[in-house]
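# step 3/5: fold
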Amino acid sequence: MGQIIIAMKKNANVNHPYTQIALLAPLLVIIASSVRSEIIDNADAQTTLKLTLEKSITQAQKSNLNILSLEEKVKTAETLVRAARARLLPHVSVTSNYTYFKDLSRSVLEFGNGGFPTFPSVDGMGQNGRDGTEQSVIEIEFGAHHNLQSTLGLRQPIFAWGRYFYAYQGAQLDLEAARKELQSGINQLSLDVSEAFHGVLLAQEFANVAEQTVALVQEQLNMAQKKFNAGAVTNFDVLRAKVQLANTKTQLIQARNRVDVAQHAFKNLLNIDLADEILLTGNFELPELSDLKLGALIPLAKKNRPEIQQLEFSEAAGRKRLDSAKTANLPDLSLFSNYQVDDNEKLTRMNRVWNVGVQINIPIFDGLATRAAVQQAKSGLKQVKLAKDQRIDFVEFEVRTAFLNLVQAKSSIDVQKETVTQAEESMRIANLRYDNGMLTSVELTDAQLALAQAEVNHLQARHDFVVEFARLERAVGQPLR
């Protein structure tokens, strides 16, 4: 930290508040700057993500939009199961209403001498009857101004030929199918992450090879320049080395650009901000292949692949939907019960009514809706069966292809490894011969290019092996290590 020099007048009042603020202000500015610098450094450190392959797959499962969408699909299937189960349980409801009548209905009753009410006379109220006697007339209001009514109702299906139970079973099977679809998405995402992860590593290794090539060519240029200065070679060797150096630097720029592109693709797959820095830790680890047999992998894939299991659950759900559709035009029986209370200002005690009974519903004609629903369910079931057969064939094709590509990649690794060893030895001999004047610059350049190409091919073979192994694991539906 730099020194702080504060000049003060001789007679300045140190105890004055403004003077104290003036003394502290520079110190506060420096402290604030240091804190701000530390915050910025910490922020930069937080944006650098250190990821292994396992962490990358976990991160992708949490943030990948396709996986999030499939998880919501599973939640939707769970709600459909609860909705289907609700149709098997009793339905209880409460209905209440309040009604106010400003004017009530009125009616007239006539009472004769005998005290029994009679209907009003045709000539009007208060007239003599047929026997000449006087009749009395009264008006009566029916109902009440304030009326309250509440009903508690219960309804329970008793027998419907398994219609509601089939629907519940079908919903459960659809839920399992949705879960298998989610697992399939996770497996595919794991493969995509593995390919993107190793793609970044491969691009970084290519960039390292390009940097080594630039260093070799630079060394060649230095040797050519020394020989030219000593008069041992012509200017042709120097010019050729400079051209070769420019070409290798261009290749290095392209290799570094491929690293950036591969990293952006990786970040996009993991839904990471493209501005964040990533540091991937990993290598092209080669698993053992001695225990892998194609004849055993194919049945294993047909048993474990979630795509096949998803279609199996969908097929079973389709059968349940077909069974349910066939019962739509059959009679069904249900139990009902109601408890009702009525009250108004004229009642000394509210009315209470309770009833219980059974109801049978016999469909007679539904406009052929049941027939259409059955045909639709049969067609949907057949589509699922065909899709399952097609998926089984495709899974077998995927396993065979991945296994053959894996064997080819393993053979390429063995060949390229030997090629790199030979190219390194050739480069060592070429440098000695060129240093002793026994090799031309053209021959030295050829040796350099051969070594660089051998290293690139070896890296590509190791990358292909790791990726094909991941594809085989995805094709089989389980880890193979």
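# step 4/5: annotate
Residues 1-46, 122-127 have pLDDT under 50 and may be disordered.
# step 5/5: archive (pending)
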